[in-house]
Design goal:
The complex is a heterodimer of chains A (about 375) and B (about 290). By secondary structure, chain A is of the alpha/beta class. Chain A contains 13 helices and 16 strands. In chain A, the strands form 3 sheets. In chain A, strands 2, 3, 4, 5, 6, 7, 8 and 14 form an 8-stranded mixed sheet that branches. Chain A has a 5-stranded mixed sheet with strand order 11-13-12-15-16, with helices on both faces. A two-stranded antiparallel sheet of chain A has the order 1-9. In chain A, helix 1 (about 10-20) packs parallel to helix 2 (about 35-50), helix 3 (about 60-70) packs parallel to helix 4 (about 80-100) and helix 11 crosses helix 12 (about 340-350). Chain A is globular and about 70 Å long. The N and C termini of chain A lie far apart (about 40 Å). Chain B has one domain: Rossmann fold. In chain B, helix 2 crosses helix 8 (about 190-205), helix 5 packs across helix 6 and helix 6 packs across helix 7 (about 170-180). Chain B starts with a helix and ends in a 10-residue tail after the last helix. Classes of the chains: A alpha/beta (about 375), B alpha/beta (about 290). Chains A and B meet through helix 2, helix 3, helix 4 and strand 10 of A and strand 2, helix 4, helix 6 and helix 13 of B. Strand 10 of chain A pairs parallel with strand 2 (about 80) of chain B, so a sheet runs across the interface.
């Protein structure tokens, strides 16, 4: 990798680079702290390569516009933060049921409501899973470094295309605004998945056809297929149905296409886990402090280890369960009042003690806080 | 009387047969609209107006929100998108910007376009994005069984205005013009020939075109407000309640009182948004990508 590709940039900038690398050519959004840099950067970069940047009237319009653009064949994204993410839940559900690929960046800030707009938090983890109504698929990625924001943004677009579903990239204000060294890969170095287009005759095209768990290709409007898309439950041909059997099957299918591929979607980093006796499960910015704490503990001979999910939804049940079997206790530091903590407790199935380290004063969790807790179990 | 007969004869000369099968999706009818509802007439006018452009079906995208009128796209053979309540224009904006060559038509209702979708409505008009917005205006929320809407007239009865509506109504056309739409017109389901012409002109227009289509909901609005029949309702609201812009010129002000004007009410040349965006791309040193052709 050449040195000229080595840059010093903030997380939001890396996110924009990732989107462009993945081939996204459409952004629609509404200004909101602390995600605004993504919009500002893409408003400059997209037109240069013939792409579109739209500043919409609100976040509801933003997510609807990226879904519309995706149906026009464009890989599309929006970026927002808590209050805007709340408004986007309606559109998110539509993208889930209509199976339209798109990417939503949520740079988490303190909430609820306006909260503390410039203060970081990790309190949208559950909203990212359950925010929109109805049972629906959720794919949520939680990068922890500037470099990783780049990679995970590319992966978000890839997963959106593979599974025909919205994918959320969830990081906090700290990583969003923090500057770190990053190496931008050359084109072709990182895999970019392109949308599968139908090859059948237009009259034979079924946008929601299903056989053995495969996902039907998505045609773009205006390319001869003239198909129908609706937020109502629909049959394989895309038209609304009242058939309760089909409705049940369709709901299960959109959820299962993710649940049955957990092993492909979930990626974790394991740090000193092999012989660990005390586990830490941390994601995003809190995992930085956790990693430091584990390293310090190891220096003192304490067998601590870190499990860091890069995919928070679907939840890495298997990895957490395996860890719970191995350790005395699992600590879960997060910048909220307990969200992933309960998931870890559930996945641990009572095999070890699970303890949360929560913080909502908009200051990052200090490594010493985690060290203190680890020492209690050492 | 002689003139009337002459006009009638002239109308008969117009070729009547029209093959709807190219436009209606096979097996998707009957539609969900009630007997006496005007939506079917509006659909017919729209299809004929589209046919007159001579453009292939694949050049058109029909986008809708939620409500009775928003069921239109499901029945017709174009690229069709049935979205969320009030949000059709936001979806349509993304689609149009991603594929500027598509002619995007939004079918929406008074509640969908002006209440829950009011913000998207004014901002679409402001941008002057090349979208045709057909507001099927029947003064009521039909699909949820008859609540008053932003166009329900004062005093009228709805399931949520049993004592008579006190909310003042929006004038769709004035609102569209004020927000920046460059083609604003009003038609009715009763004056179907006129509506077809207006819709064709709207489709040919480059920019945001808003058509306030006065329509009737006999099932709710009609029943609650003591109209004798669907036909009676059409006559009172659409025929007697409106006057064409041409006729209006020769009528004294007292004859125009309480009547809505029909026809093209506003037309203006102003830069269209996708064209503006193409210039922006050029300014930034970019090229239009092929997927946007």
């Amino acid at each position: 990798m050449s040195d000229k590709k080595k840059k010093f940039m903030q997380g939001n900038e890396a996110c924009s680079e990732g989107a462009l690398y993945a081939g996204s050519r459409f952004y629609a959004g509404y200004p909101i702290t602390p995600s605004t840099e993504v919009a500002e950067i893409l408003s400059v970069r997209l037109p240069k390569i013939g792409g579109v940047f739209m500043q919409m009237e609100d976040e509801i319009a933003s997510i609807c516009a990226i879904i519309g653009a995706s149906l026009g064949g464009a890989k599309s994204l929006t970026a927002t933060s808590g209050p805007g993410f709340s408004l986007m839940q309606e559109g998110l559900g539509f993208a889930c049921i209509a199976e339209i690929p798109c990417v939503i960046i949520n740079v988490m800030r303190s909430g609820p409501s306006t909260g503390f707009p410039t203060g970081p938090s990790q309190s949208d983890v559950m909203q990212a899973k359950w925010g929109t109504h109805g049972d629906h698929p959720s794919v949520v990625l939680t990068p922890a470094t500037v470099q990783e924001i780049f990679y995970e943004t590319v992966r978000a677009f890839n997963l959106a295309e593979i599974y025909r579903t919205p994918v959320i990239v969830l990081y906090d204000e700290i990583i969003g605004h923090m500057r770190e060294a990053i190496t931008l890969p050359e084109p072709g170095e990182v895999e970019v998945i392109e949308r599968k287009k139908p090859t059948c005759k237009p009259e034979e095209y079924k946008p929601y056809a299903q056989s053995n768990g495969t996902i039907a290709p998505l045609a773009a409007y205006g390319e001869g297929y003239k198909f129908h898309v609706t937020g109502l439950y629909h049959a394989e041909d895309g038209f609304p149905t009242n058939n309760t059997k089909l409705i049940g099957e369709a709901n299960e299918r959109i959820v299962n296409k993710i649940n049955k591929n957990v092993d492909k979607i979930c990626i974790n980093e394991e740090y000193y886990l092999d012989d660990a006796e005390i586990g830490v499960v941390a994601y995003g910015v809190s995992s930085k402090s956790a990693k430091f704490a584990v390293k310090e503990m190891r220096k003192k001979g304490v067998k601590a280890g870190l499990l860091r999910p890069k995919t928070i939804w679907p939840f890495p049940d298997k990895a957490v369960n395996k860890l719970a079997k191995q350790v005395k206790a699992i600590l879960v530091p997060e910048m909220n009042l307990g969200q992933v903590y309960y998931e870890v407790e559930r996945a641990s199935r009572g095999q070890c003690e699970v303890k949360g380290i929560f913080k909502v004063d908009t200051e990052a969790i200090h490594p010493n806080q985690i060290i203190e807790e680890i020492e209690k179990f050492a | 009387m002689e003139t009337v007969t002459a006009t009638k004869k002239k109308k008969k000369e117009k070729p009547v047969p029209f093959d709807y099968s190219n436009y209606i999706r096979k097996g998707k009818l009957p539609h969900i609209w009630c007997p006496g509802c005007g939506h079917g007439i509006v659909l017919k006018c729209m299809l004929r107006a589209i046919a007159e452009t001579g453009r292939p079906n694949d050049d058109f995208a029909l986008v809708s929100g939620i409500g009775c009128s928003s069921r239109t796209p499901g029945y017709v053979n174009f690229n069709t998108l049935h979205t969320l309540h009030g949000r059709a224009l936001a979806f349509a904006t993304g689609l149009k910007m991603a594929k500027p060559n598509l002619k995007v038509i939004v079918t929406t209702g008074d509640g969908d376009a002006l209440a829950i979708g009011g913000n998207h409505f004014i901002h679409t008009c402001r941008r002057n994005l090349d979208i045709v917005i057909m507001v099927y205006n029947n003064f009521i929320y039909g699909m949820t069984s008859g609540q008053f809407s932003p166009t329900t007239l004062p005093g009228m009865i709805a399931t949520t205005s049993r004592y008579g509506n006190i909310d003042p109504p929006f004038d769709v056309c004035k609102m569209a013009e004020a927000a920046g739409a460059t083609f604003v017109a009003r038609g009715t389901a009763y004056h179907y020939g006129e509506l077809e012409k207006i819709l064709h002109e709207a489709i040919m227009h480059k920019g945001t075109a808003v058509i306030d289509i006065i329509d009737s909901c006999p099932t709710y609005y009609g029943r609650f407000n003591k109209f004798k029949s669907p036909a009676d309702m059409m006559e009172k609201i659409e025929k007697e309640g409106t006057v064409s812009v041409k006729q209006a010129d020769s009528l004294p002000p007292e004859k125009l009182e309480g009547k809505l004007l029909r026809g093209v009410l506003h037309k203006k040349e102003r830069p269209e948004y996708t064209e503006g965006y193409a210039k922006l791309i050029e300014k930034a040193g970019g090229k239009i990508v092929s997927s946007r052709q």
